[in-house]
Amino acid sequence: MPAANDDLVIDLDGVGVTRSGAHLLRDLTWQVELDERWVVLGPNGAGKTTLLNIAGARLYPSTGTARVLGERLGRTDVNELRTRIGLSSAALAERIPGDEIVHNVVVTASWGVVGRWRERYESIDEVRARALLDQFGVAGLADRAYGTLSEGERKRVQIARALMTDPELLMLDEPAAGLDLGAREDLVNRLAELAYDPDAPAIVLVTHHVEEIPPGFTHALLLREGGVVAQGLIGTVLTSDNLSKTFGLPLKLERSGERFIAFS
Ligand SMILES: Nc1ncnc2c1ncn2[C@@H]1O[C@H](COP(=O)(O)OP(=O)(O)OP(=O)(O)O)[C@@H](O)[C@H]1O
């Protein structure tokens, strides 16, 4: 058996996920390195969330092998592994109580909990939480109740929370879903800054829309019906042809600088 490559943040080999006879993922081989920023693109039901759940050590593959941050799933303590991964998703966001103070939404990530009860936080954690809220332009909302924020503000707080533990891998599941144009552009610009930051973790961003791909993202994985349509450098993989195959209809893709737009 070949030795594991320590520079690989995600290393999937022939991964399949089967549920009730359905193939959610099939024969997926995918490697993500430390300094890469990946976008995972595909239509509803393509298997994107299933893939994030594997990469986030929340699901085991039915077939194949999955290594995350050098640890092989099934042979490691996933609770320890999960503390090294920052995840932002709608499912996690739903667990944040509406009356939670925004600052606490972020700082509680360092204890892997939602809801601040009796935990005591080091002041270094308090400072980091403030800095992350500032980085995402929501420091002024730190003392507000989370439930009173707009959807765009909530998304930014969720990403700040995902970054709180200084993860080695950051995974964002549809971070721009439900945002208006201004809020989307604000988020895309902030994610671009993160993507260009050499100290930022490896990033995997899941989306349905090429318009939501932030500048600075380096690679793309296109999924359809649990299988890979194409993967590799973003400039090579994102073509009209590949996008049409992925979404199952004729599409034109245009590029403007580092942004993309698609239409039929
Ligand atoms: N437990 C299960 N049993 C059977 N099928 C399932 C199960 N869980 C998920 N699926 C199916 O697997 C497919 C992939 O689901 P997944 O959530 O990974 O897709 P997705 O690409 O994230 O979709 P979306 O963009 O709509 O969020 C879907 O068709 C879904 O209905």
From TrEMBL:
Coiled coil start-end: none
Residue stretches making up the ABC transporter domain: 10-250
Protein name: Iron ABC transporter ATP-binding protein
Keyword Oxidoreductase attached: no
A GO term for molecular function: ATP binding
UniProt keywords, alphabetically: ATP-binding, Nucleotide-binding, Transport
Pfam families recorded: ABC_tran (PF00005)
Species: Phytohabitans aurantiacus
